[in-house]
Amino acid sequence: MHPITYIFSKRYPRRRVARHTATRRDRATRRRALDRARDSSVDSTALDRARAPTDAAVATMPTTTMRTTTTATTATTRGGRRAREGRARDDGRRRAMPRCGATARDERAMGRARWAGRGPGRARAGTRAAASGDDKKALTLEERIASGEFTKASSTGPFRKVADGLRGLVPEDAGPVGRGVSLALARLSRRWRAEAMSKMPVASGDIREIAGQPVFVPLYKLFLAYGEMFVLAIGPKKFVVVSDNAVAKEMLLTQAKSFSKGLLSEILDFVMGQGLIPANGEVWKIRRKVIVPSLHKKYVTSMVDMFGDCGLKGMSQLARAEKANESVEMENFYSRFALDIIGKAVFNYDFDSLSTDDPVIKAVYTVLREAEYRSVTFIPYWKVPPLRWLVPRQRQCQEALQVVNDTLDDLINRCKAVVEEEDEEFVEEYMNTDDPSILHFLIASGDDVTSKQLRDDLMTLLIAGHETTAAVLTWTTFLLAKHPEVKAKVFEEVDRVVGDRNPTVADMRALVYTTRVINESMRLYPQPPVLIRRALEPVTLGGYNIDAGTDFFISVWNLHRNPRIWDEPDAFKPERFPIDAPMPNEYTEEYAYLPFGGGQRKCVGDQFAIFESIVSLAMLMRRFDFELDESKHPDGECGMTTGATIHTTNGLHVKLKRRDGRGGREMDGTYVTGMALSNLEDVDVVRGSIDAPTASADEFDAAVDDVDGDTSEKLERAKEIIEEETAKAR
Which one, of 506, 457, 583, lies nearest residue 297 by Cα? Predict the structure, then answer.
């Protein structure tokens, strides 16, 4: 209870008792309305109506919510003025500390609509969530969130209910004794309520509610219900979900040393080892100090030229498809295109994935998809050694990883031999014109590391530089296909700035609107949508004391669509980032915009990725117009699935139309040799590789049962572990 509210409760006990009695009745009324809405055909309007407090409810809210109300009595008194001043001072703090317990559950059952609706230009979150909940499963989850099912009541909840109930039974004319009893009960209730408010809200539920859809979607709905910081207790694991930009800044910048990559390091260890992304502590400091200089200005300039060369090959392949009147699956195209670029940029290897299906390419994609699979799988069965070879998916992953490692070892040895023979002096912006790759730079710099560490670094750069760019280009193409008015502006700019030549570094400054389109695409579809951290020591965030070892999800998706921060957060509006302003980043947007993370662990290749995306998009749009293939996207939408990045559910299929008089010899479709896009195998972004099988605990059971002879104790114990983990998850 606010101190001023308590003073007035003491001075006007009868009004306080009457107010509380009315509040209990109103809460019961709202609860019955919610039940009726849920039991009916789930009319979203009915749900919104049930969640929203009536004028009478606002006038009779319990003392914990009195900061939003003002009575005629308090408005005309000195105490009323102090109350309003106190409420103004505490408003921001209290919004950052969502309430728990019985009363809080009632408020959270209204949804975050009331919270999101404060302030100019902020849409009502409840209405937005209902409008996007056409999917039956999502709508069911929304209902359950609204009902408060996910929230665990604190241990003091029942006692507060009893105390509040007894207060309501005290007659208004009970005299001094009755008022004394009511006051004592009020003190108990206030103390228990304060204890509950100091605890972070807890959202709990069945693991299937999260696993059945992209993980960031239910996280967003839970954020609208429970606030910008809450505990997610799903299956056997617990995470603190952060959707507050101020808290994100604390974690990534101010208190960055108090956090590690945590689960991310564990997930990626099999493929990245001690590479720059998963590494922690001294290893990270050393590797960053060595790798960052390789991304110097001269190198980036050279890479822009290489982007253009790869772009011509890609445009030739698209010209083939357009000439044959074939639909093109752009996610697969961009994945292969980005793989060719990053292969040349990192270790001077030509995958030629746009025209061949090389075994190395298959191996790379198998490893990439396995990393994504593990990032969203709650049962880490692969940690049991026998399963690495018994489960078909894991066996295939181990074989693919061996192929990739052998290839990298060969490239490292070749590069070392070349460096030993060259007589170039290593300087600050050293670069071999024949081999400008990061691998060549690292070896020439005299970096004294093992081949294992060097391989870890290369794999990290390969995965990070490939997946994110492909995803950004995929969703940018989707958004442009959905918004022809924006697409027309990009056409005009690339025609004016680039013409028929390849883009240059100087063009990057001139392609301002194209850049803003990419910036806005990364806001709506951040890659990755979630950042993972672990507290290395006790920390205080958002007013909560958090223990060491706590795992965090910094939901970039929620930050980028937070209605408190962004006007029309779900709308595609490149103009929200002015073209005459600096490029948006974590600093310009106060850590509400994190496409490349922020702080010490921010992506070191952000400039590389931005330039690659701008060049690729400019070359595509200079030559082709495009629209969604209606046969593949009858509703004009493109479903999402979770990986390390946001993938499409079934691909992004577009119809291309050549823009007359645009482009050069690449537009006749004969610029490259090899297979056409339609003959290349599609990469299954859900299952793993081109032909990877699915995997589950059931598949493990079958694998164990197929073993000839007596099953070893290790295998039996492994089976028990999987059964135990599966039971926990259920």
Answer: 506
